Amino acid sequence: MDFTIPEEMILMKKSVREFVEEQVDPIAPEIEEKDEIPAWLLDKAKEMGLFGLSIPEEYGGAGLNMLGKCLIFEELGRTHGGFTTVLGAHNGIGTVGIVNLGTPEQKRRYLPSMASGEKIGAFALTEPNAGSDAANLRTTAVKKGDRYVLNGTKHFITNSVIGQVFTVMAVTDKSKGARGITSFIVEKSFPGFNVGTVEKKMGLRGAHTAELIFEDCEVPEENVLGKEGEGFINALKILTNGRVGIAARNLGACGKLLDLSIDYAKQRIQFGRPIAEFQAIQHMLAEMAMETEVARSMVYRVAWMVDQNMPVIKEAAMVKLFASETFGRVVDKALQIHGGMGYMREFPIERFYRDARINRIFEGTSEIQKNIIASSLLK
Q1: Which CATH architecture has domain 233-377?
Q2: How far apart are CA 190 and CA 175, in angstroms?
Q3: Model confidence, pTM
């Protein structure tokens, strides 16, 4: 197992670090206030190829393997959570289904425009009655001639407002339970596709989450992704891949919080000396550093396993669980070190604190990850 980072990836990491520090960080307060990511910033990300990380070079993408993608996600995780989520959802669950399961024609039709960022991807599984119980879908897809007609509602869908290409799970045969679910590639322009309520969230401002409403939405039969009846299995594969990416983004956030806390502890004077000299602060910094480094080792190892085509259902659950829980512990210590200032909106700690919480819920709650791990152990 060799985690030596190739020179080209070191250069790419450096350019992404410079981008987030020089372009994204300065406007993070603006994104928070307006709940909107400026178009020019998304255009800059497109120019840098940040929408094509998962997409093979033959379709205009960067063609990164999982370890390479996680190295970039780690850098993106250091900045505004909403911006990072838009890119993460697109490069993760928004595109990997088409990359890994799509037909040659589907790939030719969708991947070039997704790699350029012209069309942004999203993933629609969750419904009002199907969250952790992902097999309990109510959205239906009925075959009529050369088309499927979709009816139902999805909610909590990231990139729903700006997305154009959606991987959607729907029931094609209710009698078969989870084996009666099929995945589809659905374009926002298809008749019967509507975006519903846009949710007001605690964090991840600028990354909009909304309902998708299908009312006799017509989807061509050639837009079935994979085989009919394998949608639930497809969803699990896509989510397993996405969980590694989330862990990498959480890792980046932990690294940023550690850096901010070290700098603040050296500058903040109390009782006539920097608080970095107090053992209580040193112990918190030591714990933050230790957990961040453990998360890094896990992320890199599981990403490497994916690249070796090894089974990672258990390991992906472990790394998502550990990294998201670590993010919560690290940001809590970071706020404690910053004291009252960490609670104020003028400091980024407050934003990281709000953004951290969702990571223990989306793409599989911490409890679901534990179920997956236990199930793997008890086979």
Answers
A1: Up-down Bundle (1.20)
A2: 27
A3: 0.95
Contact (Cβ atoms closer than 8 angstroms) between residue 288 and residue 258: yes
Strand 269-270 relative to strand 140-144: parallel, antiparallel, unpaired? Answer: unpaired
pLDDT at position 112: 98
Cα atoms in the Cβ-side hemisphere of radius 13 Å centred on 99: 30
Catalytic residue among 211, 315, 350, 363: 363
Options 3.20.20.190, 1.10.3290.10, 1.10.490.160, 1.10.540.10; CATH for 7-115 is 1.10.540.10
Work out whether strand 147-158 and strand 140-144 pair parallel, antiparallel, or are unpaired: antiparallel
The pLDDT tens digits of the residues spanning 138-188 come to 999 999 999 999 999 999 999 999 999 999 999 999 999 999 999 999 999
Q: Is there a catalytic annotation at residue 221? A: no
Rounded to whole angstroms, the Cα distance separating 230 from 245 reads: 23
